[in-house]
Design a protein that fits this description.
The protein is an alpha/beta fold. The protein has helices spanning 12-18, 71-86, 89-96, 103-109, 125-135, 168-171, 194-199, 217-225, 267-278; strands at residues 24-26, 43-45, 63-65, 117-121, 140-145, 161-164, 177-180, 205-208, 231-234, 254-256. Helix 3 packs antiparallel against helix 4.
Length: 281
């Protein structure tokens, strides 16, 4: 971007001082009172994917822009979770710590990922990448989104579909895997609760890689304790960091990650590529 002048702030104070010259700010956080120091600011850009990352009310003429490159990274993590569940890896690791040779329990739980039905709640950029990667393993895809598009993704086969959120309850009883890839909005608050978990088959696994508010954690705790679903793989939580005394930490069949499923050594290189594509000057 040869026409862009770039200033690199090495501290918060330097950043605030440089805002007086900035038309665009790339940052992880921004405070409301900083807008007064940035008369020419037009964009705040974050390397994060979440629409809720900045808790600011920008003045007229300033746009907050999140990133959209994380889909491929999150998709790899979700496929790892799905393979770990279907091929007995998670269960095997758990049982081998407690039993001498739990071969029967592990093999009896193993299934093929190929041919399984994957329901993705939140079929945007991240959900689409999860579906794209899952198709390589032979999964059947049902995407759920608020406003389904008329055109199906080009990688879909005849058995795949995208449905409105009103059809969620209809598809859950046939789901082998339920992935939640939703942003934090008032409309997504505890969208998966006791009713939805009860609709899942007992062998089904749940994966939350969007925002923690979408899942009723108390309902999930009860479902896992009562063996009403097969497993849960959680990267996001209602409270973060996850409290040390959270019941989720000791739940059978509950596998936790510290909001890290998009991590990669080349995260910032991918961000810069995404940024340049959006803001060619």
């Amino acid at each position: 971007m040869p026409s862009a002048g770039i200033l690199h702030a090495r501290s918060k104070d330097e950043f605030i001082a440089m805002l007086s010259q900035a038309e665009m700010a790339i940052c992880w956080f921004f405070h409301q009172d900083w807008f007064a120091s940035a008369p020419d600011l037009r964009y705040i850009v974050t390397p994060a994917a979440g629409l809720d990352y900045f808790t600011v009310d920008p003045p007229a003429g300033v746009e907050v822009v999140n990133s959209s490159f994380q889909g491929t990274l999150i998709a790899e993590t979700v496929l790892g979770m799905m393979l770990s569940h279907t091929r007995g890896i998670s269960l095997g690791i758990d049982l081998m710590k407690k039993e001498v040779w739990p071969r029967r329990e592990v093999t009896n739980s193993m299934r093929r990922l190929s041919g399984s039905h994957l329901v993705i709640l939140g079929f945007g950029n991240i959900g689409g990448w999860i579906a794209r990667r899952a198709k390589l393993f032979g999964c059947r895809i049902t995407g759920i989104r608020r406003r389904p598009r008329h055109l199906q993704p080009e990688f879909f086969s005849y058995e795949d579909r995208v449905l409105p959120v009103e059809k969620l309850h209809d598809v859950l009883p046939a789901a082998d895997h339920l992935v939640i890839a939703l942003p934090r909005t008032p409309g997504t608050e505890k969208i998966i609760g006791r009713t939805e978990l009860d609709l899942l088959p007992p062998h089904a696994a749940l994966y939350n890689v969007g925002r923690g508010n979408a899942l009723d954690e108390e309902a999930l705790t009860a479902a896992l304790n009562e063996n009403r679903i097969g497993a849960a793989y959680l990267d996001v939580f209602a409270r973060e960091p996850l409290p040390p005394d959270s019941p989720l930490r000791n739940l059978p069949g509950c596998y936790l990650m510290p909001h890290s499923c998009a991590a990669s050594p080349d995260y910032f290189e991918l961000f810069i590529d995404d940024f340049i594509e959006k803001f060619q000057i």
